[in-house]
Amino acid sequence: MEEIDEIKEVISNYDKDNIRIGVLASHSALQILHGAKKEGFETVLITIPEREGFYANFRHLIDKVVHINTWKEICRDEVIKKLQDLNVIIVPHGSMVEYVGSECFLDLKIPLFGSRKIMEVEADPRRKMQFLRSAGIPTPREFSLEEDFDDLVIVKLPGAKGGRGYFIAKGKRDVVKKLGNNRRDVIIQEYVVGARAYYHYFYSPILERLEILGIDIRYESNADSLGRLPKSDIEPSFTVIGNIPMVLRESLLPKVMDYGDKFVKATTNVERGGIAGPFCLESVVKDDLSIVVFEFSGRIVAGTNLYINGSPYSWLYWDEPMSMGRRIAREIKLALERDRLYDVLR
Amino acid sequence: MEEIDEIKEVISNYDKDNIRIGVLASHSALQILHGAKKEGFETVLITIPEREGFYANFRHLIDKVVHINTWKEICRDEVIKKLQDLNVIIVPHGSMVEYVGSECFLDLKIPLFGSRKIMEVEADPRRKMQFLRSAGIPTPREFSLEEDFDDLVIVKLPGAKGGRGYFIAKGKRDVVKKLGNNRRDVIIQEYVVGARAYYHYFYSPILERLEILGIDIRYESNADSLGRLPKSDIEPSFTVIGNIPMVLRESLLPKVMDYGDKFVKATTNVERGGIAGPFCLESVVKDDLSIVVFEFSGRIVAGTNLYINGSPYSWLYWDEPMSMGRRIAREIKLALERDRLYDVLR
Amino acid sequence: MEEIDEIKEVISNYDKDNIRIGVLASHSALQILHGAKKEGFETVLITIPEREGFYANFRHLIDKVVHINTWKEICRDEVIKKLQDLNVIIVPHGSMVEYVGSECFLDLKIPLFGSRKIMEVEADPRRKMQFLRSAGIPTPREFSLEEDFDDLVIVKLPGAKGGRGYFIAKGKRDVVKKLGNNRRDVIIQEYVVGARAYYHYFYSPILERLEILGIDIRYESNADSLGRLPKSDIEPSFTVIGNIPMVLRESLLPKVMDYGDKFVKATTNVERGGIAGPFCLESVVKDDLSIVVFEFSGRIVAGTNLYINGSPYSWLYWDEPMSMGRRIAREIKLALERDRLYDVLR
Predict the structure, then answer these.
(1) Are residues B128 and B267 in the same domain?
(2) Domain count of chain C?
(3) Residue of C150, C213, C251 to mutate when probing chain A, most A C-beta within 10 A
């Protein structure tokens, strides 16, 4: 557990009165910056040149910019040194592992508000589903090409990401036909028919409670538009292009909270202290009101961008506008006040 | 009209300075509790053991918990006595009639902010549609198995609820085939093709005005996901699993307000004073911009859970965040200030 | 450029301490009135008799009502005189050109916060697409009946508006069959398959910046409901009946901002000072994350009605609830403070 001790050391050298919250210029950065400012933190945007122009529109949310030429440069010693000198805590988001690579990410000598090892599990499709099953959360059936099946399935190619690299098939024969020769490392999952719902959780080590801060539906191209066409032969694709807000039937929330609790508990087997902060369970609700979780995200999801002024759920907990980005900053603030910063960082 | 006099008597014994707002632990309870607290009321959660753990996450919204072992126990004398001693007004929601049964509900000796007799009409599919027609609100055509028809229809089995027990068919032959021997008491309604919209109204006896506080789309499993699949043979099902926000074309709002007015007026034939508080008209907007109402709810609907911090419409009326739950509590407060509590309770 | 000088003269006669914001009773009027009041302006509702009853529900947002018998009466001298005497700036919306006719609209001797000439381009389907192409914004391919094609296309009949008068066809043969003899002035556009997203921009001449204040999905009858039906032969129709909120993948926002900048720049070739205030680009996001813009609106769109208390994007710019209607009023206020009113009016 070498990296953890090193993180402890980095934190011990930080000026606790000048902690800054840093984020890579993508995914949910605007929300994270906005939330950090609301909680009184200075912010640091880490950006490549192509993104600078856009984020300059929000310079009132950004105190410092750390310029890098490629995302992977964040792993270079001088960049790390610069971030450490600014007392930066990075909030990792869904683009971060993808951009910087998982080796660099895992050992990065910057404190993260977020869970390195759980994000590592998230990045491996097989470990991811195995983790959910071991947590006791219902997941879709999996099929192998060794067996015969007639079911409607979704096939995930190696490296599938953000909804790309998935396809739907009906039965083994159709899977084999569509795969062609690329049969290695594919995941074949029961396609659960029902309404999708993505739950945004926040686990607070300081308040020792799990909060449900919002729910969304991912808006996918072209799957969410095919129904508008008459009798079409177009195959669905699943690239996530945005998010749509929703609330869930209140009588389902106890179950959603239960699965969240199970997830938190299971993370203690993976990382020191388990998960701290945001995560997401990605589910289908069937017409018998059972919930099947087909993926998770071990960090902030972009669906939280819907709720920058609070969600139908966050208002139940907080009597002020509380986005996920602000909730993260609030937790860091609470931890600083209690001299427990190390407990919320990984 | 025995029960009404009894309610008057119960109210007359209440301590008006210590009115508490009570709700069963389901449906829109969190919103109702949240709204009641915002208006300065103490709250009472009535709950069965299985729900206690979940609602304990929101104990900051709950002043008293009344524990019952089954929902029907709310009808027992000692529970009623306890609620009366706490000066409780219950806000009935969509799960209440289902949970406690309509006989108990109708005679329950607890003041309700909501309409017993209109909820009774709501619970009977035939009276429900008859009520809408008598109010002068456009409804879908109905078919009987005595006649022949080729139309696309939706068939509602007896006891259909929350979207369960419905199916779609094309023409009489298909209906008969899908029904099998269960032909009794089915309702066969024209399936109106168009965009669904559910209007959340609030009628205020104190301000003597009808407000439109929000609009939603019910999110149904699996109907709202079938369009994502290529050429599927899966039959749609209509279990409501949540709600999605929407706004309506402004030029349609006068019509929506007109239908709401008609509804309010018609309720005066059913219950003393007509409806007080929330109700919902559930419609399809056709591509010629006509509106067809296929159902109503004579009480708060779960779609209002979207708007816990106000909706695009509530902000037009109120210069503060006004959920339907808070609006209910506000009306009780206004009635208390004017010594007119009996006028808003049923 | 006669009308511009005349507008300058009208403005010069206005009492700058008593500017009133006026709007026709439709489309986004409630939002515009609400926003004007928030910024401290008096408001004027211009209405026909059929709409008065509905808008009377919002009399707290309306200071003066100008009654006209038909929309076109707004072009009569005495109505114009009355509006000038009230120092009215009209905020034109999507119903205005349709209601008053484009000749009257173009020469109307009332200052507009909005762009006459760009709205004129918007009203002409061929010039509209030509304008987008000349701005350097990606648009769908267009087809003519002189050529042969097999593509999925959307056909727009002359006068198509608000989603009405469109149909989908597959290949030239199907187009010809569905058109029958009405082949004049039709536009045949590639039907781009992907997820629709509508971006609400505001260009501020005073702050010299382009803001993205919201994104929505138009909710169309019956296209958005067909996917709920099993194997249906019903042809899609595209009447807009409302709007659903969404957020976009953050990594797409730089491109969206770029297209907005290109649009603003191109408008300077069409109208003195280019566009001032709201406009909308109406797009499909393909599964390769490219964006194709199939239409624009050169004024406030009804999708902004979703965000009367602010949108996920407006909160990033403004630390207060900022609807598009309020943003318009804010710009007028800023212009008045800087004695630059003429710069934001057209």
Answers:
(1) yes
(2) 3
(3) C251
